[in-house]
Each structure stands twice: as C-alpha cells, then as structure tokens.
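Allow me, if you will, to draw on your knowledge of protein folds for a short while. I am sending you one protein, given as its amino acid sequence and as whole-number tokens for its backbone shapes. Kindly check, if you would, that the fold set down in the tokens agrees with what the sequence suggests. The record follows directly beneath this note:
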Amino acid sequence: MQPSYLKPERILLKTHPELSEKWVQERIAEDPTLLGLGELILKDKERVQPRAGRLDLLLQDIEAARRYEVEIQLGPTDEAHIIRTIEYWDIERKRYPQYDHTAVIIAEDITSRFLNVISLFNGTIPLIAIQMNAFRVGDHLSLLFTTVMDQVSLGLVGDDEEVQESTNRDYWEHRGSRETLAMADEILKIIQQFDSHLELKYNKFYIGLAENEQPNNFVILRPKNELDSKIESAGLDVMDYDNRWGRYRIRISRGDLQKHSSSLTELLRQAFEVANA
C-alpha cells in the first residue's frame, strides 16, 4: 500500500507561545547528531563563562579532540549573537587548548547580510553557521538543521607545493633514511600499478608523489624519528600523536608499569628534560 502524504507545516519558534530556545537546546542536548556535524556528545550546557554569561551548549567529537561551542538564537541572527558566539569560543579555547575548538551559530534565519559578516571571520576563526527550521507534521514537531556556512578547511600537503623546499634522493640518504627510502621504493611499485607515471618527489620534511612534476600527494611518507622507534620497540600502545603540542597519548595498564618500567622511565625522563630545558 502506498504511504500517505502529510504536508509539514513550518513553525516560527520566535513567535510561538510555548516553544522556546530552551526547548531547542534540550532537543539538541538529547541528540547532538541532529546538527549533522558527526558523532557528537554533550559535554555541558548553560556553561558559565567568566564575566560573559552562559554558553548554550558545549559538544565534543567522540573520535577526535574537537569541541564545538554552540549558541542558539530564535528568529534572525544579529550582531550580539555573533559576538557572543565568538567570545565564548575564545574563552573555551584558551581554557582548554588541548582541544581544537569550533564556534557554531544556530538561528532560524541567517540573512545574507549577516552571512557575509560571518564569512569574514571564517578562515581566521573556525566558524559554522546552521539555519534551523521547525515543522509540525500531524501531532508531531520536528527540527531540521542545515549548514549554510561550513568551517574553512586547511589546504592539504602539496596544495601549496611551490613554497615547499624541494630536495633530492641524496639529501635523504645523507639524513640516514635509507630504510625509509627502501620502503618508499616498495610502496611506489604498488602505487605504479594504479598509475605508472607517478614518481617519488623529495621534499625537506617528507617524500611525496608527483606526475609530470605536478604534486599528487594522496600519500606522503615521513621518516620515523628516534622517539617513535623507542616507543614502538617497547611495545607500548600509542593512541595518537598531537602535532600541535608535540605530545604522545599512550594507553597503559597496571601491568605495563612493571613490564615496561625501564622504557617508561626513559620516556618520562626525556619529556621532563624537554619541558624543563
């Protein structure tokens, strides 16, 4: 049987006698994935900001060290909404610099004028603008969130290749990276099964790929540094490496403290010496 069609009725929350910004806030808090920004969890709501009011919602990516400072406004966005969102984002990123932070503006109406204003910040301030629409379908209410301006993504390695310092194979051999070069040659053989015109391109900090001298860095190769090798040989479980802060995240159990005692001691000593140099 063909399903029946029921036309949704658009509702303006700004003028609704019962629905409020608090109601919207609760719906997002219950299911942050409604925003379409990935698998997010609620970290806090109505988060007190020193001398600056309260942040509507603080959301966090469950897979990455990224947080979203979310401000909601019924009706059209305005100057105060933009300033408040950026202010809260700035406070949070300074308080918790171990995370990447993104400011999120949500409003029922993000006009072209204010979209132009917001876009001026994007690239300097990671900023996402989301337009919110409420609908009534029969006896049910629904919210639809549409991203009208996404965060500007940084360029990939090779997008700005002309500013990279090119080298040659001799440079890498003199760096003592023969093992890396041998592995790069083996990987290139595999890649050339897809495109025989691809060749290795030697740069100062990595080995990339090029075709007819034009970068095509869908894969880049970097030599493993001494510390990487030590951690790997110790058999420790490395969760990830934070390039911004130069820190490894290592998962250890109680048994690891005894099993890898000497390796952990050496790693902690090196970390201490670097931090107190």
